[in-house]
Amino acid sequence: MASAEPLLLIEDLHVSVGDREILRGVDLAIGEGETHVLLGPNGTGKSTLLNTIIGLPNYRVTQGRIVFKGQDLSGLEIDERARLGIGIAFQRPPAVRGVRLRQMLDVAAGGKLPEETVVKLDEDLSLEYMLDREVNMGFSGGEAKRSEMAQLLVQEPDLALFDEPESGVDLDNIAVVGAAMNALLKGDGRVSERTRSGLIITHTGHILQYVNADIAHVLYEGHLACRGNPLDLIDEISRHGYDACVECAICQRL
Ligand SMILES: Nc1ncnc2c1ncn2[C@@H]1O[C@H](COP(=O)(O)OP(=O)(O)OP(=O)(O)O)[C@@H](O)[C@H]1O
Ligand SMILES: [Mg+2]
After folding, report:
1. What are 62-77's pLDDT values in tens digits?
2. Has residue 126 been placed in a domain?
3. CATH code assigned at 194
């Protein structure tokens, strides 16, 4: 049974970058075993929300709070949040000069990975020649996404944040990335049997062919304006746009 206390609880979150307020009162609760989707127009603050949850510098919480496993995350560094069980696959993963992907996987796993695990990762995500290259140095868009996914798989976070996992990924590799995400989230089981939770940013929803998501939220004008079934909301947005979506009949307005 999922516990009554949500794994992640965000209350009235206001976040500024520089002197601009990007998030203006975000409320979100993700229960254990649930996978949520975050939709919203370009530049509304979707990545800002994920980057704030993981604790990147520059994202200043000016009001509200983020609670994970009952613990207020304010003041915790990125590595402390990772150790608590939060992982992220970035929209545009940064290059890490001097660190090979193989070494980065050891860091994400918290110790030397057994060779058979590396071989299995290679089989699942076609990491091949990337393992001995510096992380994200010259990786193509699809290679960078597969490298991010490999790091999350070995970290095994309780809450996995995916920022546009399918952007720049070819159709064959969307299936590869999607299968890895679903394996991590154990998405084929019932919510009550799952232990990991996810939050996925997507524009197209293509990744949702491979990952079972429970609910979608629309970030609009700085807050979560409505929520509903992920595929229904994406269909509504693709037909009528975001302005109409947040007023539409299928949305549960907030
Ligand atoms: N580190 C930063 N420095 C300056 N501005 C930033 C930074 N991070 C985000 N912003 C600004 O905050 C706003 C929201 O950006 P964010 O990346 O969160 O949008 P998004 O919803 O993820 O958009 P997209 O769909 O295009 O990825 C944008 O105007 C962006 O330029
Ligand atoms: Mg973004």
Report:
1. 999 999 999 999 999 9
2. no
3. 3.40.50.300
Return d(Cα 160, Cα 85) in angstroms, integer.
8
**Mean of the pLDDT values across residues 145-161?**
95
Ligand 2 geometric centre to CA of 71 (Å):
26
Mean pLDDT of 43-53: 98
Nearest ligand to the C-alpha atom of residue 43: 1
Q: Whose CA is nearest to atom 5 of ligand 1?
A: 17
Give the pLDDT confidence of 107-130 residue by residue, as tens digits. 999 899 999 999 999 999 988 889
Write out the two tokens for 120. Answer: 């299995």
Output the CA angle 142-144-150, nearest 5 degrees. Answer: 105
Per-residue pLDDT band at 192 (split at 50, 70, 90)? confident
Report how many domains make up the chain. 1
205 CB less than 6 Å from ligand 1?
Answer: no
Q: d(Cα 250, Cα 31) in Å, to the nearest integer? A: 23
Distance of CA 221 from the midpoint of ligand 1 (Å): 13
Query: Is residue 99 assigned to a domain?
Result: no
SS3 252: strand
**44 has pLDDT over 70:** yes
Answer yes or no: pTM beyond 0.85: yes
Distance 41 CA to ligand 2 centre (A): 9
Residue nearest to atom 4 of ligand 1 (CA): 17
In which element (H, E) is residue 183 found?
helix 171-185
